[in-house]
Amino acid sequence: MRFFRPFLICISFAFFAIACENDAATDNTSDTDTATKPAAVTVPRFDRDSAMLYVKKQTEFGSRVPNSEAHQQAKDWMVEKLEAFGATVIEQEFTADLHTGESYEATNIIGQYNPEHSKRVILAAHWDSRQVADHDPDVEDRDEPVMGADDGASGVGVLLEIARQIQANPIDLGVDIILFDAEDNGDGSDNGDYKTWCLGSQYWARNLHTDGYDAKFGILLDMVGGKNARFTKDGISMAYAPQVMNKVWKLAQNMGYGAYFVDVPTRELVDDHLFVNQIAKIPMIDIINRPADTETLFVKHWHTTEDTFDKIDARTLRAVGQVVLATIYRESGGTF
C-alpha cells in the first residue's frame, strides 16, 4: 500500500494514493442491534480482549517479513488457529518477485467456512510486515524492519476473533477468511510502480483457490487498531463497491460507531482490494484508518519502527469486529 505520488491506473479515473473516529462509540452498544434488525438475526458479541491477544501474539514472533523465521512461525500459528476454529484451510504458496530483484516464498492463507455454500463473502487482511521502515523519522532506523502491529497484525487479529465466533455461532453463509501475504514490500520511491505492492492479492485474484470461485462481496481490513481511528470512504471502494460500503457504514452508524465510520470521501488508495476488484471482479471495500492530520494520509506510525503493540486500542478493534460480524450475520439472514 502505499506511497503517495499520483499516477495513472487503467480505470476511468486518474489518481491513487498508496495504502499497504473518534473514540466516541461506546462498548455498551447493543451487539445484536435490536433497534434496526428483525429479531431472528442474532449477532455474536465480538471479544475485544481476545482480538488484542491475537494481535499481541503476532508481534511476539517479530517482524513477519517473508523468508524470515518470524514469518514462518506466524504462518504456522495462523493456520493452526484457523483450523482450531473449524475452518477448512488452504495454504496457497507462490513466489513473490520484489522490485529489488529479490524473491520471497510466500503463502496466502485461506480459511473456509461452509465451503459447500453457494453464497459467499470474503473477509481479508494482509499478514506480512514491511522489510524497511522507510518513513521512520529517524533516518538511521529506515533500514530496520517494521513490526506491523497495526499495519497487518490488527486486521488479522480481528479476523481470527471473527473465526472463533463463527465456530461458536454457526452461520448460514459461506465465509472465506483470506490472509494475503507479500502485501507490504512494494517500491515506495517517487517513481515506484503500484503493482509492486499487494503481490499476494494479485496472485490470488489470478489463481482463485477454487475453480469458478465467486463471492457476493468482500471486506478488507488494514490498519484497524489505532486509537481514535477514522475510517473513511476511499475512492477505490466507492468506485467498485459503493453499495457495500454505504451499507456497512450505515450499519456501523446505527450501531453507535459513527465516530469511527465517518461519511468522509478520501482519495483512492492502492491496497489489496484494488486487485480483487480489478482482476477477480469481486466487489471489495477497505476498512482502513485515514487520519485527517498526517502528511502521509495514514497513521503516524505507518512504515516506521513505532508500529508496535502499544499503538493498538481494544475499543477500535471492537468497533471494527462488531460491525463486520453484524454485516455477515445480517447477510446470512437476508437483512444486510
In short:
By secondary structure, the protein is α/β, with parallel strands linked by helices. 32% of the residues lie in helices and 18% in strands.
Q: If you compute it from the alpha carbons, what radius of gyration comes out, rounded to the nearest whole angstrom? A: 18 Å
Along the chain, the helix and strand elements come as: EHHEEEHEHEEHHEEHEH
Low-confidence runs of at least 5 consecutive residues: 3-35
**Structural class, from helix and strand content?**
alpha/beta
Q: What coarse outline follows from CA principal-axis ratios? A: globular
% residues in beta strands:
15-25%
- Summarize the amount of helix as a percent range: 25-40%
> End-to-end span in angstroms?
29 Å
Number of strand elements = 10
Strand count, sense and barrel status of the largest sheet are: 6 strands, mixed
Query: What is the number of helical segments per DSSP (H or I, 4+ residues)?
Result: 8
Strand order of the largest sheet: 2-3-5-4-6-10
Mean pLDDT: 91
Observed structural traits:
alpha/beta, globular, 10 strands, 32% helix, single chain, disordered N terminus, 6-stranded mixed sheet
What does the model show?
The chain has 336 residues and is α/β, with parallel strands linked by helices. The protein has 8 helices and 10 strands. The strands form 3 sheets. It has a 6-stranded mixed β-sheet with strand order 2-3-5-4-6-10, with helices on both faces. A hairpin with a 5-residue loop joins strand 2 and strand 3. Helix 1 crosses helix 3 and helix 4 runs parallel beside helix 7. The N terminus is likely disordered.
